[in-house]
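In this section we walk through a basic example: taking a raw amino acid sequence and producing a predicted 3D structure, encoded as discrete structure tokens. The instruction is simple. Fold the sequence below.
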Amino acid sequence: MATEPGTQSRVMFQAPDKTEDSAHRKLGKLTVKYNRKDLQRRLDIEEWIDGQLHLLFDCEEEEIPELEIDIDELLELPDEGQRTRLEELLQECGKPKEEFINGLLYRIKGLRKMSGPLKK
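The resulting token sequence is shown next.
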């Protein structure tokens, strides 16, 4: 569609609805709940776990048995319970796993459990 020279197109914007805006702001406040350093430390630990599992199972990511190491679950357990739980999770692994378990337990020392969503 051709326009004649000298005529300009106009674009009109509508103002956002107030209820939508306040819901967006509430969501923004929820995302700053956790300390950035704690989140980064947790991410570093999870990446370390992922790399170590690749070494333990000596395979590609798709071939690793379905295994979920829940850091928060471990933090709820006493020290010996943490070790026992990790040994249970890694029972299918044929390689020595003591170094991995000791490394993970060392890394999660001092880490705080992340709370789930608050219920109203």
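Looking at the output, two observations stand out. The CA atoms of residues 70 and 86 lie 10 Å apart. The two ends are 55 Å apart (CA to CA). In the next section we compare this with other chains.
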